[in-house]
């Protein structure tokens, strides 16, 4: 039986669901809402996938409350959809079978900061900037930065990463332990606070990236890093995407512990020049950042500069003062709005794939040719140290033809990445949007994934219609 | 139904099992053995837990062969126990319900080295030193070093780590993807070769540490590191365990990217002085190693030396030439044989726990007091940057009293670690020996673990009697 069938479209109006919603309303009072606008805001709002609102939204304030809600939904066969900030990009928060959206944004307490252990325990609704503000005085920071100021629970659920991942890893590497409410309302703690363990199945990593389909993450213990003594930033232009990628490969092979290394393609540079009044050459650029001691970042910058020169880069400009670094990175920081400026009034479809770094130049090159052949305006930016890149398709959502051609392009993009031993998503997740690529990417491994889903959520109430394609 | 009950003790002699063994013998000829000595060697030989041999051993040479064996065992309800080098410490390779040991040591081909991507794909029987020899000419190395020259499949299955983990992580962080044979003989590839992915459940991390209870790992794609340009090693004595631990905490908080930082307690130093003819002061020592550029390792060593001085360490001696580094680290390298020398003729029980680093001094201190009160000779060595430490109990295995008191001590040690927000094992795994601590450590999280086991191995044939305690 498919997950969707277990819930059943007809379930939306059945008597049990009405009873459950009434019980929740009675229990949570003004923290329960059936308002159309609240429901709409709790479904997908970030791309062209339809907005599919839940039947109701409950604003939870504790793990115990989440457990209470899930247990009630379990007993009445009502879908449960966890909601953090709603910034995910593949419609993870949609409710295609209705159900109850659990808004965790009120669970925003920082429960403990263990500076000596370099970890902090937070509620799932705490955002990354909130955590960083709370730990800065201890000389610490949390490195994962997916762009949006997302909730940490949501970042764990979608296995988020971003520009710093090349040095500090993704949410996969930076979650020590989770508290989660499982499908029957049981509260589990996935691991101790030890930095490593060989004690049993890695439930932490199983829940990280599970997008609410196995349990609702309510608390997280996260690894923190010491704030670097010094930061150096730099930028330089390359004659080609390939040259830039080869410079990245050599940088990483040489053991330069680069903290960020971002590729920005020529079209995005053109956008940045227009938007931010810059005069960078319209060529692929690498934006880099180094963390360490003063001597170390100087050495790293020098070593990187030498590698860039080997690949015929333009002048490598670097800086260490915060204001100078911000200026150097402006074209990267402004990428989103600058890109929109390339086609005023258009909508951006942000997508990502990830390939082994040896295939990156080829994958980006073929993708650029594909986009150009279709006449799409679509800059490319990449977390190139990880082989991960983003295409920002600027389309007219009202044009049936453009939408259709964009969807066909996305199909080719994902097939291309998978064929190059890569993945259909490096950091955005599957949600609804990428379910169709799961079989191609995973083949027989979909079997164990389905078995795990069925075992941990036999009624199929946990964020149904996400990750796993229909059988 | 418990895993054990699913197989059933009586199953050992049932007709189906005989048929399966005969079929395997016919199929694999002289790569199949029922010889008593071969069977004994394929069961536990590393500690006091009983040697429980399988019914037969098959020496597999390919993933397809492993799939064939597992499918046949599945169809005839015969337990399957994967075997690499047999060096695990918690009786992971024992066959308490009989069955077929699949010896993977013949699967020792290095299938691909992708130097540009910093990864290599190997068969499960390849050992870590074999991999390192194969990639050295590419300027690369594989950092995980659990001491024994274990097979990489076994290291993944037990989530091994070792001295380098503080900088490079454990097998959890260093496996990119696995090929595994699941309980019904299906071959799955858990992930692509992309460095990161958000595409579905993390089957890689689920199989890492699953000790053969969910599937047989047959191939691995592993992350490699660039060989550092320079290595510096160092050593210094501290007035107390607490001072040494505090120096470690400050080292890590300061962002010094230490590659190794090992605690060796006073008793182990005494053993080393005797065994290796050294004259180190009989006090807790830290052994450190730094990787990086020549300038960087010099800077790291200097920064560490300053921190050590803050905590009243003795003179910090460091060196960069290989022969000098080996000499400096001799007391650490010889730890095993030196410890045995403390009580000639005794047997060593090697055990490990792991706690948050802030609790390490307390945990080691209480453990030392406990050992002394019992009159045990038992040096302590720790991967202290991770909060992980080892106790090497030297006992007379023939003394019922000593064995009993040692078991009671192990119970207290594990309870102590768990009570300090730690884990009953940082890197040895659960196997048979630590199943009794699983409930205390994981509580309600045992439920999802059992559900996953039942879903992926409904017949309970995969390495039964390991990890999960009887229900």
UniProtKB/TrEMBL annotation, chains A, B:
The keyword Oxidoreductase applies. Keywords: FAD, Flavoprotein, Oxidoreductase, Transit peptide. It is an enzyme of class 1 (oxidoreductase). Its EC number is 1.1.2.4. One of its GO terms (molecular function) is D-lactate dehydrogenase (cytochrome) activity. Its cofactor is FAD. GO terms for biological process: lactate catabolic process. It comes from the Bacteria. Residues 50-227 form the FAD-binding PCMH-type domain. InterPro entries: FAD-bd_oxidored_4_C, FAD-bd_PCMH, FAD-bd_PCMH-like_sf, FAD-bd_PCMH_sub2, FAD-linked_Oxase-like_C, Oxid_FAD_bind_N, Vanillyl_alc_oxidase_C-sub2. PANTHER family: D-LACTATE DEHYDROGENASE (PTHR11748), D-LACTATE DEHYDROGENASE, MITOCHONDRIAL-RELATED (PTHR11748:SF111). Belongs to the FAD-binding oxidoreductase/transferase type 4 family. This is D-lactate dehydrogenase (cytochrome).
């Amino acid at each position: 039986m498919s997950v969707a069938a277990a819930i059943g479209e007809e379930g939306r109006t059945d008597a049990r669901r009405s009873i459950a919603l009434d019980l929740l309303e009675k229990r949570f009072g003004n923290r329960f809402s059936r308002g159309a606008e609240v429901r709409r805001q709790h479904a997908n709002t970030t791309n062209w996938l339809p907005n599919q609102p839940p039947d109701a939204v409950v604003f939870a304030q504790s793990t115990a409350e989440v457990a209470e809600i899930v247990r009630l939904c379990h007993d009445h066969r009502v879908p449960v959809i966890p909601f953090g900030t709603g910034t995910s990009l593949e419609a993870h928060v949609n409710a295609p079978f209705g159900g109850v959206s659990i808004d965790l944004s009120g669970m925003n307490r920082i429960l403990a900061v263990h500076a000596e252990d370099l970890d902090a325990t937070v509620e799932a609704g705490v955002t990354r900037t909130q955590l960083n503000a709370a730990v800065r005085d201890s000389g610490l920071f949390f490195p994962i930065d997916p762009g949006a100021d997302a909730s940490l629970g949501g970042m764990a659920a979608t296995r988020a990463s971003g520009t710093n991942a090349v040095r500090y890893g993704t949410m996969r590497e930076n979650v020590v332990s989770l508290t989660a409410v499982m499908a029957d309302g049981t509260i589990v703690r996935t691991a101790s606070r030890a930095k490593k363990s060989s004690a049993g199945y890695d439930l932490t990593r199983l829940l990280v990236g599970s997008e609410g389909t196995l349990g609702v993450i309510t608390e997280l213990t996260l690894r923190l890093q010491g704030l670097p003594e010094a930061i150096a930033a730099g930028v330089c232009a390359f004659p080609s995407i390939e040259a830039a990628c080869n410079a990245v490969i050599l940088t990483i092979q040489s053991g330069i512990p680069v903290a960020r290394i971002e590729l920005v393609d020529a079209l995005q540079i053109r956008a940045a020049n227009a938007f931010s009044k810059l005069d960078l050459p319209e060529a692929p650029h690498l934006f880099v950042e180094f963390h360490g001691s003063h001597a170390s970042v100087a050495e790293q910058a020098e070593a990187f500069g030498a590698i860039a020169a080997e690949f015929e880069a333009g002048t490598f400009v670097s800086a260490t003062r915060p204001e100078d670094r911000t200026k150097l990175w402006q074209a990267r920081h402004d990428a989103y709005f600058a890109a929109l400026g390339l086609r005023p009034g258009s909508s951006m479809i942000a997508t990502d794939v990830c390939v082994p770094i040896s295939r990156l130049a080829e994958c980006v090159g073929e993708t650029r040719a594909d986009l150009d052949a279709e006449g799409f305006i679509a800059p490319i930016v990449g977390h190139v140290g990880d082989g991960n890149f983003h295409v920002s398709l600027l389309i007219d959502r009202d044009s049936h033809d453009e939408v259709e051609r964009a969807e066909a392009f996305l199909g080719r993009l994902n097939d291309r990445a998978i064929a190059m031993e890569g993945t259909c998503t490096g950091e955005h997740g599957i949600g609804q949007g990428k379910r169709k690529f799961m079989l191609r990417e995973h083949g027989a491994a979909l079997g164990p994934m389905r078995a795990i889903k069925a075992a941990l959520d036999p009624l199929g109430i946990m964020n149904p219609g996400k990750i796993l394609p229909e059988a």
